[in-house]
Amino acid sequence: MKALYCDLYALNMVQAYLDNGMTDEAVFEFFVRRLPPGRNFLMAAGLAQVAEFLDGLAIVPDEMRWLRESGRFKGNFLDYMENFRFSGDVDAMPEGTIFFADEPVVRVAAPLPEAQLIEARLMNILHFQTLVASKAARMVLAADGRSLIDFGLRRTHGAEAGLFAARAAYLAGFDGTATVAAGLAYGIPVAGTMAHSFIQAHDSETAAFEHFARARPEGLVLLLDTYDTEEAAHKVVALAGRLANEGITVSGVRLDSGDLADHARKVRTILDAAGLNKIRILVSGGIDEETIAALSTAPVDGFGVGGSLVTSSDHPVLDTAYKLQEYRGLARRKKSEGKATWPGRKQVFRQYQPDGKMFQDTLALEGETFPGEPLLVPVMRGGRPLAPLPDLAAIRRHAAAQRDRLPDAVARLERGPPYEVRVSARVRALADEVDRRVAAQDRADKASR
Amino acid sequence: MKALYCDLYALNMVQAYLDNGMTDEAVFEFFVRRLPPGRNFLMAAGLAQVAEFLDGLAIVPDEMRWLRESGRFKGNFLDYMENFRFSGDVDAMPEGTIFFADEPVVRVAAPLPEAQLIEARLMNILHFQTLVASKAARMVLAADGRSLIDFGLRRTHGAEAGLFAARAAYLAGFDGTATVAAGLAYGIPVAGTMAHSFIQAHDSETAAFEHFARARPEGLVLLLDTYDTEEAAHKVVALAGRLANEGITVSGVRLDSGDLADHARKVRTILDAAGLNKIRILVSGGIDEETIAALSTAPVDGFGVGGSLVTSSDHPVLDTAYKLQEYRGLARRKKSEGKATWPGRKQVFRQYQPDGKMFQDTLALEGETFPGEPLLVPVMRGGRPLAPLPDLAAIRRHAAAQRDRLPDAVARLERGPPYEVRVSARVRALADEVDRRVAAQDRADKASR
Q1: Whole-model pTM?
Q2: Measured between alpha carbons, how far is A92 from B83 in angstroms, rounded to an integer?
Q3: Is the predicted pLDDT of residue B268 greater than 80, yes or no?
């Protein structure tokens, strides 16, 4: 990724920092200010892409030319950008970790201009993958073991979103994706059936089924709702015997419109009456976690999920922040109305109940000791990864373990009582200290004008 | 863009089409099935990127290797993919055109496997840019001449979404973007102020303002809400005289939290009392078209708009479709419940009222003649663009002209009576004809089993 994938204000600030010798260490934290009404928890995702971005960050010739030709910047800035590399430290919650409001998910300690320049892209990566992983985790909980496939590519917001959505859904517990490019990029299992156009292009629906079956006999899934769902199910019954003679088994059927529970029951009855009780019924079309939960008593074996997953359609934006918490060793906070932050370089400690479920978290300063597991771990030092990050399979196992540890009230789809995140006395005292310092400076400024 | 940026089912179908010699011309149309409740119109966007995608479409070595190694495909398919190029025709509404439900926005006529393979990426591009342009157009109408800047990069869904959102917002009438990379990629004007971190990193807010002013004197905008908005406005007043002595003018201030109308009035009063009535007041933070409209009587001169714009947060998904309408010269339609389509190769004719406002559209077959302007124009023939597409400035002018032609009820933010889209008698008759043909084939299939 390129260095100018940023907001213009970052460049403006870097120019001013350089002009004023403000290149000392700054600590920024990425967190979510508040959970959306429809989320009891969030799941961290995107760290691998952040580490990759930071590790390889450098300006490319086209960008350097643009900076020079814009006439906006001075020589000190252009020299700085020419040689720009990220040299900072990163601590973070491993991907797949459950987290809550105000908890730092990623903490960056780097020279101030570096930490500022990476802001937009770091947020862009973490916001989206966390958004999708958090939505996907709800679907996984609702599906309760039934299969889930990402069908969302066509409605993701651009090319990278298609890849990131497939990755975030898979790490959160989805079984695979229809997106071939995500199979190539991340080794995610790919799955796919057929489109209505395939049926329509044939003059006969039965002929279409036969053509497809012979061309794609492995894991054969036939789409039933192009014209009449139950009629198509009867065609499958008639065809299944002929195909069996050729050694081809119909694995599943897909329903994509109408009252899915009703169609699923009718199709199940038609198939079972013909002894085809091994054919799985998959549904797609407008599926979200509520639909999945509502179909828990219907004979549905799996779901293809599109727009609701890949845009997190009920809440497509998280209230994410990347805020300066310390500079030159002094804690910092903003006090903007409704957006005040907890200052200092922080850590999160998580305690568990005897049954292994999460009990409560404590937001503390780095260096404080609290009972429980510290959630942020070292990821990068001096701009380079400390060790290879976990692979996708390991992240997926971690996410599954995290889901298992969710308290019941937090795991439910309905809004529950908020999970308790306590703020340590030292963090609170530090906030007061920062406020007093800022107020004193304000009085001094006022006196001098 | 690569050829395997697609759904697996596309590859499955291409294999089956090749096995059965189904490579004749197919006509697919991209359209929106229904408008979201919060939209009276949509604005087409993304055609330039679709044309670029189709023009350069070819498989890359990594993809070819993946196809071979997957063991899923036969030799005829691998040969076909190795030499894959798009050779079809594209007709489309120019970007910036207003459109409504069921109207084809892009029409593709190509050999069936080609038209199928491009489905996901074509939809991915058009869906997102149309989504953002349509949302942005509502904001432009609400802003009524006040300035609008895209601040959304950090909350766009991935890297490409950041660029596409800036492009779609600009063509729909935004004045610029904070996204530097979009300035490089598309020549969109870039704008930017400062972050709270800049203030926080300094021990004194006044010192921060001074440092920034000297480093970035051009179009200087100061951020007021880090600690106390009105207090910061007084600091600006005290500072403005000193800066004027150095030849630096404060152009604007930005408010990013709290009751924006209330703060804007108070800040305006403070600035005006000091004779600083030329300083513009910009607001950001949770802005959408409703906020913009609600601030119409507040002393606000411009808006920085983020998540609501770049994710179209109230409706982040459009009910887009890319459907087979004709194959081997025969019209086709799907009849899935709630998702039936109008068959055939179609055109849209738009009639205007004497005052130039849009009056009604007619969905007709290509070749039919109706009063009004045909909206789809030839874009590609034989896989290559017919001529250079309009540049972004021309698209933006077209979009502005389209906005001016919206009937008042359609231009309003509130839901209005639907704009009339008539369906020609020949399209209706063709739908009946397709249904009769499918039913007859169904009876024949049934008789034979």
Answers
A1: 0.97
A2: 45
A3: yes
